[in-house]
Specification:
With about 425 residues, this protein is of the alpha/beta class. The protein folds into 3 domains: about 180 residues, FAD/NAD(P)-binding domain (3-Layer(bba) Sandwich), CATH 3.50.50.60; about 150 residues, FAD/NAD(P)-binding domain, CATH 3.50.50; about 55 residues, no CATH class. The protein contains 11 helices and 26 strands. Strands 6-3-2-10-22 form a 5-stranded parallel β-sheet, with helices on one face. A hairpin with a 2-residue loop joins strand 8 and strand 9. Helix 5 packs antiparallel against helix 6. The longest helix has 20 residues. The protein starts with a strand and ends in a 22-residue tail after the last helix.
Length: about 425
Amino acid sequence: MPSRRQARGGTLVVGGGFAGAYVARLLGRRGATIASPENFMLYTPILPEAASGTLEPRHVVVPLRQMCPHAELLLGHVRSFDEAERTVEVETETGRFVVEYERLVLALGAVARTFPVPGLARHGLGFKDLADAIRLRNHVLRQLELAEAEPDPIEAARHLGFVYVGAGYAGVEALAELSDLVSDALRFYPRLKHVPQRWVLVDAAATILPEIPTRLGEYAARELARRGVEIRTDTTLVSCDAREAVLSGGERIPCRTLVWTAGVRAHPLLAELGLPLDERGRVRVDDHLRVEGRSHVFALGDCAAVPNARTPGRTDPPTCQHALRQARRLARNLVGEPRPYGYRMLGQVATLGRHKGIADVLGIRLRGFPGWWVTRTYHLFQLPLASRKLRVVTDWTTSLFFQRDIAELSGLGRPPRLGEGPE
C-alpha cells in the first residue's frame, strides 16, 4: 500500500519548473510540497548558452531545495489524482506516496511539439531541457571531429551542415550560439579551413521571431543572413534522415544535424487527470488561476490557458516572463484576498550570438550590442539566488578573455560498469 503524507502547508505543487518553483518560493514560510521528477528548476532563457559552452550547464539550473528552503521536495512522477479525496499519488524510486492536500497547484509545463515527419523521431535533436542542450553540444562537436577525419570534401561538408526547424526564440538563439561555438572551434581544425559550413533556419511562418516588433525581427534576419545563415520562411520539413533534410519546396539540404524547436504542447499527463482542457490540451482556468469548476485546484504556466485581464480575449503565451507574473499573483491569492490576474509585458529580448541581440523594453527598441547587453542584464536580474547570479556573471566574464571550451563530453553520466574498460 502506498504511504500517505500531508502536503506541507496544505499546498501541493505539481511541477518544479519556472511557474511551480516560484509559487513554492513565494509562499515562503507557509510552506508547500513540490512533486517533481527533477530536484532543480531550469532557467530556460539561457539554455542556448549552456549548449554553446558560454555557461557551465550546472549554472543554468537552480536547486529547488535552495530556491524553496521552506518547501518539501518529493522527487517523482504523478500517477493519479483523486479530486473527491483531495489526494495525488506520486511514484518515486523508493515507492508510491499518496499526498493529501488542501490546495493543488498544477504547473506541469510543456513538452516539445512534434509532427509525424518521416525520420524526425530518429534523426532529429530536440532543444527543450538541459539534457537536450548537452546532447546537442556533444553532437555538434562530434561532427567537427568526423569532418576533420573525412577524406572526401563533399562528405566533410555534409558534417558541417546544420538545419534548425523553428524560428522562434529557442531556434534563433540556439542557432546563433551554436554557430559561434563552431566558428570558435574551427581554428583548431586546420583541415576544415576551406570546407564550407551551411546553416539553415526553417519556419512555416512568414517571418522569423514573429512575437517581436517587425523592425527588430527584420534586423535579426539581416544579422543572421550576414553571418551566412540561410532563412527559409513559409517552409516546412517534409522528411529527414542521417544524411539530408527535405523541405516542402523540394529542396534537399545535406546535413548531419537537424534541430527541432518548432513549438511546445501541454504536458500529456493533463489529458489523464479529467480536468477541463482547451483545444491545445491546456487546463482551462479563470481569472484567479483557479481551474474551471474546481474550488481548490489551480493551474498556471505553460500547462494552463490563462486569461489576462490586461489583454482581453487572449491567453498568455508560454514564456518565463508570464509564468513568473502568474506565480506571483497565485501565491498572493493562496494566502490573501484573491484578485484577478493581469499583466502587460514590459518588453521582449533575445540574443543573436556574440555581442548581438534585440530588445523591446517599454517601447524602446534596441539592437546590436545594446540589445545584447539589455538581454543579459534582464536574465541576470530574473535568475534566482545570488550564488547563481555570481556563477553566471563569472562564466560570462571568463568567456570575454578566454577561448571557448570545445571538449566533447558524450560519456558524461554513462561510465562503464565496474570491471569493464572503455569501449
